[in-house]
Amino acid sequence: MKLNVTKEMNLKRSYLDSIKEMEDFLREKERSYGTHNLVEMGELGIYIRMMDKIGRLKRYYQEDEEPSLESVQDAWRDIAGYALQWLRFFGEEKNE
């Protein structure tokens, strides 16, 4: 799916706005679910969750199948969240 520049899009949205939105999103997820499942399952658990989301997006983009349980935006937000959680919990270990 290509970016349609004729479609009204908010391309001027700042990174800081997006980061603040992600912070709020992740804090709410953490309040609801905790972090024990991510830490307990480790990097593999985060990878598996990301692949589930990528699979949903693949069906959407390749098969034009609209997700029934979550929006496309929700899937992308979850992928970004899992990437940030990996950096938070495991990123320092990889730099040592």
Could you say which structural class the secondary elements and strand pairing correspond to? mainly alpha
Based on CA inertia axes, which overall geometry fits? globular
Provide the succession of SSEs: HHH
Amino-to-carboxy terminus distance: 39 Å
What profile does the largest beta sheet have? none
Please give the share of residues in helix.
Answer: over 70%
Task: Name the features.
mainly alpha; 96 residues; 0% strand; 74% helix; 3 helices
Structural overview:
Helices cover 74% and strands 0% of the residues. With 96 residues, it is mostly helical. The chain has a domain at 36-95. Helix 2 (36-63) packs across helix 3 (72-95). The N and C termini lie far apart (39 Å).
Briefly characterize the structure:
This protein is an all-alpha fold and 96 residues long.
Topology, please?
Layout: H1 15-33, H2 36-63, H3 72-95
Helix pairs in contact: 2-3
